[in-house]
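During the second year of the project, the team shifted from modelling isolated chains to modelling whole assemblies. The rationale, set out in the original proposal, was that interfaces cannot be judged from single-chain predictions alone. As a representative example for this report, we include one of the complexes processed in the last quarter. Its constituent sequences, exactly as entered into the pipeline, are reproduced here:
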Amino acid sequence: MTDRTDAKTFGKTLELHGIGKHFTSRGQTVHALEGIDLSASGGEFVSLVGASGSGKSTLLALIAGLISPSEGEITLGGVPVTGPGPDRGLVFQAASLYPWRSVERNVAFGLELLALNKTERAQRIDWYLAETGLLDRRAALPRQLSGGQQQRVAIARALVCEPAVLLLDEPFGALDVQTKEDMQLLIGKIWQDTGTTVLMVTHDVEEAVFLGQRVIVLGSAPGRIVTEFTVPLPVDRDLAIKRAPEFLELRASIEDMVRAERLGTTNGIRS
Amino acid sequence: MVLSFLVPLLAWWVLSATEVVTSRYLPTPGAVLSAGIEMVESGDLLSDFWASTERVLYGFGLALVVSIPLGILMGSFAAGQALFEPLLGALRYLPAPAFIPLFLIWLGLDEAPKIALIFIGTVFFNTLMTADVVRNVPRVLLDVSYTLGASQTEVLRKVIVPHSVPGIIDAVRVNVAGAWAMLVVAEVVNSTDGLGRSIIQSQRFTQVDEMFVVFIVFGLIGVVTDIALRLLRTAVGRWAE
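Output from the structure prediction step:
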C-alpha cells in the first residue's frame, strides 16, 4: 500500500492572528473569542481543552471557514482563509454522515467534487477505508453502524480530501470508554500515517495529553488562550502511557488549570 | 386491519337488512354490489373514473411541478422564504372552492376550471410542507458538505434534495387526498362526467346504492394511491426508516 504522507497539501502552516469573534443577539454582544494567536506547523498534533463556553467549537468553525472572524486573520500556508474548503477537514461530535449514502459513498463525497479519474478515486477511497478499518463495512448504511464506526467514516470522509489540517470537534465525546480508547489509538496511527496536521478540541484532558504534542488551554468568557503545555512524551504512545507518572502529572496540572478557569480564577487555587 | 373494515361492514349489513333504516336511504350491501356490477357493465363507472382521474393527474401534477421546486427554494434560501412564505401562508387559508365562480368566468366551463381548482387547492399546502421538509435537513450535514468542498448548488443537489425526498413523498401522500376533494367540488358544481358528477346524478334520482358504489371507488383509489406512494417511499427512502 502506498504511503500518503507526500500528498501536496500536507505540511502547510496554519496561523491565527488576533482572532476575535462576537455574536450579537437581541442587542447583546457576546464575546465568544478574543485575541487568539495560534500557529500549528505541518504535521503537528495540537489539542485544545477548556471549560464549556470557552469557544472551542467556535474556534474550529472559524478555521473551517464556516463562520468569519470579527477580528484578526486566519491563514493556511500563507493564504487567507475566506470560506470552507477541502484543505481543512472537519469532524463533528454529532452524527454527520449522509444517511442515504453507503459508507463508501459517504467517503467518496468530497472526491466526487474533484476532477479525479476513476482509478485514482477508487484507490484513495480504498486506502482510507483500509486505514480506518472500514473495508468490510463499505456497503453498509450509516444506521447499520455503531457509534465508533460512524465516527471512523466521518474521519475517513474528511481525510480522503487530503486536507492540510484535520479539525476534530470532540470527535469521541459521544462514545463509550472502550470505543473511545480504540479511536484514540486509531487517530494517533492515522496522524502518523498521513502526516496531516491535527487540531483537536476536547473536554477530556487525558485524551488531549495522550494524543497531543501540545495542549492549549482556553479560558472562558471571553474565550482566550490561557496557557500552553508541551507534552514531553514520545511520538509513539500506547495506552499504558496514561499511567506513567509524567503523564499523570501533566494531566493533573492541566486539569487544575481548566478547573481554575471555570471557577473564574487564574491563580491555580484548588477547589 | 381486517377487523377495522369488517366491523362497520357488519353494522351496515345489520342496519340495512333489518330495515332499521329504510332501504331507500341505506341500501343493503347486496344492492350496492349489484348496482356496482350494473355501473361497470354499462361502462359509465369506468368512463367517470377516467374523467376524474385525468383531472386529478393534470391539476395535482401541475401543483407538484410548481410546489416541489418552489418549496425546495423556500426551504433552502432565506431569501426565498422571505419572498414567498408570507404570501403563501395567507393564500393557503383562502378556501379554494371560493375561486370556482371566478374560474368559470375566466376559464369557461370545460376542463380548465376543474384543473385550476385542484391546482389552487393543493399547490399552497404542498409548497409550504415541502419547504418545512427541506428546512429539516440537519445544519451539520450542510456544514460538513461545505467543508468537503461543495458549492451551494452541489449542496442543494447532493444533500438537500436527496435528504428531502422521503419527506416530500409524505407531503404528497397527504395532499393527494386534498386533490380528490377539490375534484369532487369542481364536478359537483359543473360537470358532464366524472365520479363527483355521478354522485349528484344519483342524488337527483335518490339512487343511494349508486352513491355507495362511488364512495367505495373513492376509497379504493385512496388505498391504492397510498400503497403506491408508500412503496415509492420505501424504495427511495430505505435509509430513513
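The beta strands of chain A are 14-25, 28-40, 45-50, 71-76, 79-80, 88-91, 165-169, 197-202, 214-219, 224-230. The two ends of chain A are 52 Å apart (CA to CA).
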